[in-house]
Amino acid sequence: MLGGGGNRTGAQERAARRAGMTPLGRRLARWLPAVLIVGGFAFDMSTPPQYTAAPFFSAAPLIAAPLFSLRATAVTVIAAAVSEYVVVMYHSTKDNTESVTEALTVFVVAFLALGINRVVRRSDARLASVRDVAEAAQLALLPTPPDRIGGLAVAARYVAAQADARIGGDLYAVQETPHGVRLIVGDVRGKGLEAVEAAVVVIGAFREAAEQEATLEAVAGRLERALQREGGRRAGLDQVEGFTTAVLAEIPSGTHSVLRVLNRGHPAPLLLAPDGGLCELSPASPALPLGMSEIAGWPDRVDETFFPAGSLLLLFTDGVTEARDRAGRFYDAPDRLRGRHFPGPDVLLDVLVDDVARHTGGPQADDMALLAVQRPLGE
């Protein structure tokens, strides 16, 4: 098949995504070279001899080159060349100068498409290698947590704004400690490797401090000092404008009915009740993000609330709250989730990711890190 329906690979899918194609657009593009060749025949046979179908036959392999495999592109090239040869022979006259020129144009463009395909395939191979490295880095920095930690149901997601990206400055971590189950969701200011570097520092410091420190306030202090220390050592960590918004949570050992939250300039977590009720856990005393202690100093304060059985705790980064629709309206997570029932954290995160995608109606402007924890019924 000229469309290469049986030869489409992951590289072709990536090429289509880079072109900004929707799934429907990719399906249509698969058949476009065949449509052009057939349309060229129809055009040539239904018009006077002075009209030429050469543009149709030239366009078909050029469209196939970046989207199809080498084999499918070669089939398209042969089909275009043979088609042009057939119509030239059909209109053959004593003076074939114009027809020969058209045929040569089609042949040159067709074989040029093979070269384009080779270049694109090599680029896709390099991109695939980079993606593999990025995926390995994501698994190391943001491993998928177990389904249950400390008797709680847990789920996490990382949704990159760019299709070929895998990791950025958004972060999450959850672990069972001697003091209970502790969680963090954060967002490093900036993009690229500097943001990833800062995220590594925050997660590393959190995992160590969560085990050793008796309070969330002490954990936050350790994170603050870690960012300051590493900022002095590494030129990439901006000591002047760099900061990390974060929310830390703790569900103490021995009882799952208490929830403690410490917020450092981050979007407020949501507590979803089994009956559809929803509560925003906004901090009683707003605080600056991590890494800004030189601007102002204050004692951290933990807010404590009741964590009913069956309830879901949802933590997320501003990729959710700053997602906009085509009219520029921000996504309102409390309003969209209030009154809805979710059987578990996995379902909640799946619904939220899909709902944000529907709200934006296109690519997201920022990454999203999501973490959900449910206290089981019957406790």
Describe the structure.
- It contains ten helices and eleven strands.
- It is of the alpha+beta class and 379 residues long.
- The strands form two sheets. The chain has a six-stranded antiparallel beta sheet with strand order 1-2-11-10-7-8.
- It starts with 9 loop residues before the first helix and ends in a 5-residue tail after the last strand.
What's the topology here?
Blueprint: H1 10-18, H2 23-46, H3 54-67, H4 70-90, H5 97-141, E1 148-149, E2 152-159, E3 170-177, E4 180-188, H6 192-212, H7 216-233, E5 244-252, E6 258-264, E7 270-272, E8 278-280, E9 303-306, E10 312-316, H8 318-321, H9 333-337, H10 345-360, E11 368-374
Helix pairs in contact: 1-5, 2-3, 2-4, 3-4, 3-5, 4-5, 6-7
